[in-house]
Design brief:
Layout lengths: L17 E2 L14 H6 L6 E3 L2 E8 L20 E5 L13 E2 L23 E9 L9 E5 L2 E2 L1 E6 L2 E6 L6 E4 L8 E9 L3 H4 L5 E2 L3 E2 L3 E5 L4 E11 L5 E11 L7 E7 L5 E8 L4 E10 L11 E8 L5 E9 L4 E4 L2 E4 L2 E2 L2 E5 L13 H13 L4 E3 L7 H10 L2 E5 L9 E2 L2 E2 L13 H15 L5 E5 L8 H13 L4 E3 L16 E4 L3 H8 L7 E8 L9 H4 L1 H4 L3 E7 L6 E4 L5 E4 L29 H7 L3 E5 L3 E6 L9 E9 L2 E8 L7 E6 L10 E11 L11 E11 L18 E5 L3 E6 L2 E6 L4 E7 L2 E2 L3 E6 L6 H5 L2 H4 L2 H7 L2 E10 L2 E10 L2 E13 L4 E8 L9 E8 L5 E8 L12 E8 L16 E4 L1 E5 L5 E6 L4 E6 L3 H5 L13 E9 L23 E10 L1
Parallel strand pairs: 26-27, 26-35, 27-28, 28-31, 31-32, 33-34, 34-35
Antiparallel strand pairs: 1-10, 2-15, 3-4, 3-6, 5-13, 6-12, 7-11, 7-15, 8-14, 9-10, 9-12, 16-17, 17-20, 18-19, 18-21, 21-22, 23-24, 24-25, 29-30, 36-37, 38-39, 39-42, 40-41, 40-43, 43-44, 45-46, 46-47, 47-48, 48-49, 50-55, 51-52, 52-53, 53-54, 54-63, 55-62, 56-57, 56-59, 58-61, 59-60, 60-63, ...
Helix pairs in contact: 3-4, 5-6
């Protein structure tokens, strides 16, 4: 649309989404010389307008300084604001987080395309500039890479243009409005527009100029748009390069284009060219044998496109990365370069806890390295096109991309979880066609040359309908080299051909198998699965196990990569990571913004341990003799890796070695290892095998681990007389002092006191150190995780909370033998008179205290969250070391990535910094644990009959349960030790009702027992 005057009514007009905006084009760079192009540095024909602008904030349109753009309007006294950046993160307006509901729900009674008039924040920006030297006689344009959600532009008092779509560029021609000397640029940004109805993503609702702004000029003959399409022959060996160029400028007539393709080493592969005809160039060139691009081996060629005028003078050079790859559907299965692909993916929001979505290059570099280091091979740009640099990094580092257009209308068709599309948009509504299609075109035209992008996505959670179907048809007709994704057809099968693959969100493994066993017409991916909210990712193995079972199961994308939490100060001035509602925002969806496998401050969560292991392409299966290596890579062998192996006994290394082993892609090999297992001393052993990098790569350092496998076995004791327990020097006389209220037991340096009144152990002194600050008590409750809350665990299983608070000792009995003293306490619980718990303490002649916990349940009770015994010890015991599964926290359904070994931590660090305090820090497979003070004094807990689970924390389950933020937790007065025979899994299929899988639940109607030993160090 063209116009010379701005009209505020465009904000609510669904037919107006751009005025005077230039057509979308490819995101290439261009330079004057080959030297500049080869360096690919800062463009001299681009002038950065990022930085400090003058700024005024108005809560609604009728409060804005309407004529601020005029030449004589003074911004003296206005505030300063940083660009790029969000208005709401710089001290203005209301920070708000909502998920599926629209942010005005309950505040304004609206239906699309109407807008709230009372709360539509307006940001007025002013920036002055002088044209760079040498630009005066050339065309000048301005590019806004991202403005949320609608904006008007004026230069020197004259209207330039209008744009919507927060996540793709809007460019305008400034040439007619320039003046000599100082130029005044004025931008008016509105938080709400018709575009806001299409941007109902699960994220913080910001506004402002949040991506780069720059001026640019072009040479006399300029390549405005580049389209590079590669193809491969049937053998995936020889490549074809198709080049389509659109030129502009007075010198384009009679101009000639020359293209030089260079390989990764800089050697010229081929040079070819063409004359410009009607400002167009179309070339198809056979390249011959080529190196292929894939996420495993992201081989990039460099194409230098040179433009010469009619006189043969070089005017412009465009450097363009080129990856030869072929993505296609073969027999209903997606293939990359002829091989079946499995997406080991993650959904990624652009986010920084201080800058919101105005992320930096450093953020992106950290992200791409972290994603690669943890064996992910794919990213879905949820739910909008990202900054261009992100795609360049995916090309270079090697990640497959689902590029998703900026569309989500979740609140228009799903309410309180129920599908109710009575006023869904865009649906079949023709008036929404153009505005939606514009977003698709803008994304495709900008991003089309990135080999990392395999799939175009029609947006997210916008139901179905004809409008989105037409978008998919545009994608397919314009770009047949890629496939098209859209999950929403699951809710509206009328246009099932919208998506080339069946894509669902949070389907259970059984539901996926049901689909795959029904002879489907399309392959399956989970565009979102494993909702990683808080302590989650349990049961992920059930999804990854489908990869080898069903060829048409082609992976999924974890939700999601990074917590969307924002730094805020509490009332005492201390920073914390805040979530929805913490800023007084209502409506809000509170902590639902915290679903990341990376914390908002870009520290990796413990959940990543499981992700890295289950996503590894190379699988190692060691045993006592060697290791079976299964290389599931499609293209990469193991020549860049070194096999490291070790043998540990009781957590201590016995031997270590390295081997050079090259296993081709898609093959396996068994390698013998010189472990000497035939002549081992008795004990528990672990064979550890790992592939590590021989040399540093773009994404990891030399020696970083790529794949891991462990095998645990027990070697019988050859000479039973050598056992330490038979040493007579370790045995002491057992002295028992039975008082009226207490029973004291002394064995050497071990002094134990049992209370008849309280029915428990009340003191255990080991070499003078008191280990019991508050007595042990049966525990059946864990601090609810986000997933637990989603299943209403507090309602369904809450009786175990009360049962844990009020166990009653109804009986005690004691027995003394020459080599031990045993006392047993019997407890009743308020949950049922038929439930009985017995805790027995046996003090032995070596000074150790053996603890046996037995539970007898009954029918009709809810499942147990945990079967444990918990006590408090001194906070001076602030260090813990385990021989257990680790090194990070793990649970029954999230322990595949854990490994048996000796791991250590500060007790304070065992509490994971999830946004809402909850159960965290657990270790499974615990053989022993040592709790020590800073001088190394302390005590040891040993598993007896079988490994136990253990949580050592500064807080009780009840303290964690009753805190909504970490700052609400009490000052630390204790170290809390919780020994469990079993704890239920954490789940993760979703966080709003999906239960933990049956095998990871704890039935309450049977008998349970566990035992452990406490002894002095």
């Amino acid at each position: 649309m063209k116009a010379t005057q701005a009209d505020i009514n465009w904000l609510g007009d669904v037919s107006v989404f751009e005025v005077n905006r230039l057509n979308a084009y490819s995101d290439h760079r261009y330079y004057h010389t080959m030297e500049e192009a080869q360096a690919s540095g800062t463009m001299k024909m681009r002038y950065d307008l990022n930085g400090t602008w003058k700024f005024n904030y108005a809560v609604r349109p009728d409060c804005r300084p309407e004529l601020f753009y005029t030449a004589d309007f003074s911004s003296e006294g206005w505030d300063d604001i940083e660009v790029p950046g969000h208005i709401q993160l710089q001290g203005y307006g209301q920070i708000q987080y909502v998920n599926t509901q629209y942010p005005w729900d309950g505040l304004n009674e609206l239906r699309p395309p109407a807008l709230p008039q009372d709360k539509n924040a307006v940001g007025s920006y002013i920036r002055t500039f002088h044209l760079p030297s040498g630009w005066q006689n050339s065309p000048v344009y301005i590019s806004f890479q991202g403005v949320e959600s609608a904006f008007y532009v004026w230069l020197n008092g004259q209207f330039v243009g209008y744009g919507e779509d927060s996540f793709t560029p809007s460019d305008f021609d400034l040439t007619p409005f320039l003046q000599d000397g100082e130029n005044k640029l004025a931008v008016e940004v509105y938080q709400r527009s018709t575009g806001s109805w299409l941007e109902d993503q699960d994220f913080w609702r910001f506004s402002g100029i949040f991506r780069d702004v720059y001026l640019y000029t072009v040479p006399a003959a300029h390549i405005r748009d580049v389209r590079v399409v590669t193809d491969l022959d049937k053998s995936y060996t020889n490549g074809t390069l198709n080049l389509d160029l659109k030129l502009e400028g007075k010198a384009s007539a009679g101009a000639r284009v020359e293209a030089e393709l260079r390989d990764a080493e800089g050697t010229t592969v081929k040079t070819f060219g063409s004359k410009v005809s009607d400002d167009l160039v179309n070339i198809s060139e056979e390249i011959g044998k080529v190196h292929l691009w894939s996420a495993e081996i992201p081989y990039l060629y460099r194409l230098y496109i040179r433009v010469y005028n009619a006189a043969g003078e070089l005017l412009e050079v465009v450097p363009q990365a080129v990856g030869f790859r072929k993505f296609e559907m073969i027999d209903k299965v997606m293939h990359i370069n002829g091989k079946r692909i499995v997406f080991k993916g993650v959904n990624r929001h652009e986010f920084n806890p201080r800058r919101g979505r105005a992320i930096t290059k450093e953020d992106m570099l950290w992200d791409v390295r972290t994603i690669k280091q943890n064996n992910m091979n794919a990213v879905r740009t949820s739910h909008y096109p990202n900054q261009s640099l992100w795609y360049e990094l995916c090309d270079e580092y090697g990640l497959y991309v689902i590029d998703e257009m900026n569309l989500e209308t979740h609140g228009s068709w799903q309410k309180l979880g129920a599908v109710e599309p009575s006023w869904v948009i865009p649906g079949d509504r023709p008036e929404w066609h153009d505005i939606v299609m514009d977003r698709a075109v803008s994304m495709v035209e900008r991003d089309k040359n990135h080999p990392s992008i395999l799939i175009w996505s029609c947006g997210n959670e916008s139901h179905g309908g004809e409008v989105i179907y037409k978008v998919s048809q545009y994608f397919k007709s314009y770009d047949p080299t890629r496939l098209v994704h859209y999950e929403g057809v699951f809710h509206d099968r009328r246009f099932n051909e919208t998506s080339d693959m069946e894509s669902r969100m949070y389907a259970k493994p059984a539901d996926i198998e049901e689909f795959l066993n029904a002879d489907p017409e399309k392959p399956y991916i989970s565009c979102e699965y494993m909702h990683a909210m808080g302590n989650s990712i349990g049961g992920m193995h059930k999804y990854t196990e489908l990869e080898d079972k069903y060829p048409m199961y082609q992976g999924g994308f974890i939700w999601d990569y990074i917590d969307q939490s924002i730094y805020k100060k509490d009332r005492y001035g201390k920073e914390f990571l805040a979530y929805g509602g913490d800023f007084g925002d209502r409506p809000s969806d509170y902590s639902f913004c915290g679903n990341g496998i990376v914390h908002a401050d870009r520290k990796v969560t413990a959940k990543m341990q499981e992700v890295k292991f289950l996503y590894q392409n190379i699988k190692l299966f060691p045993d006592r003799e060697g290791v079976k290596i299964v290389n599931s890579n499609l293209f990469a062998d193991t020549s860049a890796l070194e096999l490291v192996y070790s043998l540990e006994r009781e957590g201590h290394e016995v031997l270590r070695g390295t081997l050079e082993v090259n296993v081709p892609a898609q093959s396996e090999k068994v390698v013998k290892l010189p472990l000497g297992t035939a002549s081992l001393a008795g004990g528990e052993y672990a064979v550890n095998t790992a592939f590590v990098l021989k040399a540093a790569t773009l994404w990891a350092d030399k020696g970083d681990e790529v794949a891991y496998g462990q095998y645990i076995f027990t070697q019988d004791q050859v000479d039973s007389n050598a056992a330490a327990g038979d040493d007579p020097n370790l045995k002491n006389e057992i002295q028992v002092v039975e008082g009226d209220v207490n029973i004291g037991v002394r064995v050497g340096h071990t002094h134990v006191l049992f209370s008849k009144a309280f029915g428990t152990l009340v003191s255990l002194k080991l070499s003078g150190l008191e280990t019991i600050a508050q007595p042990p008590a049966p525990l059946f409750w864990r601090a609810t995780t986000d997933n637990d809350k989603g299943t209403a665990m507090g309602f369904e299983l809450g009786a175990w909370y009360a049962a844990s608070l009020l166990p009653r000792c109804v009986e005690w009995k004691a027995e003394q033998k020459p080599d031990q003293y045993r006392i047993e306490f019997t407890y009743k619980l308020n949950i049922s008179s038929d439930v009985q718990v017995k805790v027995a303490y046996t003090v032995r002649a070596d000074g150790s205290v053996h603890v046996h916990n037995a539970y007898r349940g009954t029918a009709g009770l809810p499942n147990l969250p945990i079967h444990a015994l918990s006590f408090k010890t001194s906070p001076e015991f602030g260090n813990v070391e385990w021989l257990a599964m680790g090194p990070e926290e793990n649970y029954a359904d999230r322990a595949f990535g854990a490994r048996l070994g000796i791991h250590g931590s500060k007790v304070a660090d065992t509490v994971a910094p999830y946004l809402v305090p909850q159960e965290s820090g657990n270790r499974t497979g615990v053989r022993w644990a040592k709790l020590t003070d800073d001088a190394g004094r302390g005590f040891k807990i040993e598993a007896s009959a079988a490994p136990v689970e253990l949580n050592v924390s500064p807080y009780t389950a009840f303290e964690l349960e009753n805190a909504q933020h970490a700052y609400e937790l009490p000052p630390v007065h204790y170290t809390v030790v919780t020994v469990a025979g079993k704890q239920m899994g954490v789940g993760g299929d979703d966080s709003w009702g999906a239960p933990v899988h049956p095998e990871y639940r704890i039935s309450s109607d049977g008998e349970l027992e566990f035992e452990f030993v406490i002894r002095s160090l």
